[in-house]
Amino acid sequence: MKVSKDVETRIKKLREAIDYYRYLYHIENRQEISDEALDSLKNELYKLEQEYPELITPDSPTQRVEGKPLKEFKKVTHKVQQWSFNDAFTEEDMEDFDTRVKRFLGGNKKPTYTCELKIDGLKIVLEYEKGLLKTAVTRGDGKVGEDVTLNVKTIESVPLRLKKDIDIIVEGEIWMSKKNFEKLNKTQEKRGEKIFANPRNVSAGTIRQLDPKIVAERKLDCFIYDIASLEDEVPSRQFDELKLLGDLGFKVNKNFKHCKNINEAISFWKEWQGKKEIQDYWIDGVVIKVDEKKYQDSLGYTGKAPRFGIAFKFPAEQVTTVVEDIVLQVGRTGVLTPVAHLKPVSVAGSVVSRATLHNEDEIKRLDVRIGDTVILQKAGDVIPQVVSVLKEMRTGKEKIYHYPEYVEACGGDGKIEKIIGQVAYRCVNKNSFEQQKRKFYHFVSKKAYDIDGMGPSIIDVLLEENLISSYDDIFSLKKGDLLALPRFAEKSVNNLLSAIEKAREVELSRFLMGLSIDQVGEETTIDLAKHFGSLEKIQNASLEDLESVYGIGDVVAKSIYDWFRDKKNLHLLEKLFKQVKIKTGLGPTQSKGKLEGKKFVLTGTMENMGRDEAKTKIRALGGDISSSVSKAVDYVVAGENPGSKYDKAVELGVKVLSEEEFLRLIK
Q1: Which of 13, 42, 118, 599 is catalytic?
Q2: How far is 378 from 477, CA to CA, in rounded Å?
Q3: Is 621:594 a contact under the CB 8 Å cutoff?
Q4: Is residue 379 very low, low, confident or very high in pLDDT (cuts 50, 70, 90)?
Q5: Does the pTM exceed 0.90?
Q6: E strand or H helix that includes residue 328
């Protein structure tokens, strides 16, 4: 399969960006984007290389573990090569990991798992001879690290002597508590110095300080979690290994758990998503390892990672994605808000496809363009926002966004104007939003697309939050877009998305009903669908053709004719057809039954059946509905308080059915 130039360019840009940010962090102790955003870039590159393996090169960031050591420190070759775990981001990833483990082990082997918190700090390798600390070395590139022994000795939680005089090499994580991090930043602020982005950044920078006094002042901490080498026999289980480390005098994080299967491990991960914020250290996931050492040995390693373990990351609050379009959406007061339409991406546990850009000044400040790769941030229930643009990812194809002279959603001639004294624009037509709301209410109603759970209050919120401005936007809503809104729980969001998905296939009459064509009601749409049979024939119908349809007069015919010749409406149809499909046939009107050829008028309130349900029953049996009484009508169904239609039926001699008689008729 030939690889497109765009894919090659994207991979090249990803590699350059990842190498640039990795060098800043690992070599120069600086950080311009979050770890989560960097993970997102790496994950995108990994997936592209999996799809196009012929493009993998030896120097790709996916083919190595870490960067080279700083020159200021003595280089040390690791006695035991240091690995980095592959990442998992979803429950499906974890299930795939479990499947791979069992397939590799073969037979009927049933491995269990030990789950440990993934502390967000700096990895350290400690070597002890006869129980005394000999060296402390950073991971570096996995083969060669940096000797930071003097600095590590200042960390109180690292024992200078073990409780047993043994030779051992252990691995752990150096970190700074949230409390000390806050104190340090307050001190930096008082001194007029730059504050640090996060505790991990501080840990990495501090441990590479040449002056151990500075390290001691910052009060770092350290958890030990693995034995790389031991003169005695290593415990047969990962769980027992952690206990042994504690017995030797190392500080071991106590929040580890043995799980019988992968489902228990996933439950542990879910549990800690809710508990991670109350800890005094940063946690960015859970490390899940096969518990049995004999299975670990059998599984071994790939070229860059252990097969027996994986880092199950918590949902990122910062990711990278691509701006596919910028659309102006109309708010309640007619103010226009630019909204970035994004390549769908998972952030903070849900898929998001929209982010507000606030106003023209913000677009200019960010210098965001259509086609740009951006960093997207979402924290808690806050609506996602674009934090920054990765300008080094530009290919030259990106488009600068210019405010248009008119916006279709404004109604009328669509003209817009800048609000005096503000940075915002608004529609010149001040009544467009209310009209827009009513049209959306109609579009999702039972008579049109019948989207269960999307009532007026939901439509109001979606419009106010700038998530929809055109009918097709409803079908591109993602779970993450909805979960961020007030009073939207996961179950109700799932139900709503299911209803939207179900509505993607719609009968022709309901499709027409959803368009809000002036003068066209439910019965007219059914008459049109029955007469013409397809939207294409309705679009191409002449005025004479439309006037020839039973029940359609010249005023209604002109309204239909004009609607399908308006360029804005044709553009709406074009967008809508990218999301929905018209069902073949005529839906409820095509059925032949005992009521075929019979016309009904419904009036009054029915006790045992709603009017819409009654209409559906009639059509399912081949009958037709009329909105007015004439001699052409066969039956008038009269419920309580029937009104003038009952009187007209009696006057014209049309047969009147009670509710009971009607129910017997349709059985």
Answers
A1: 118
A2: 17
A3: yes
A4: low
A5: no
A6: strand 318-330
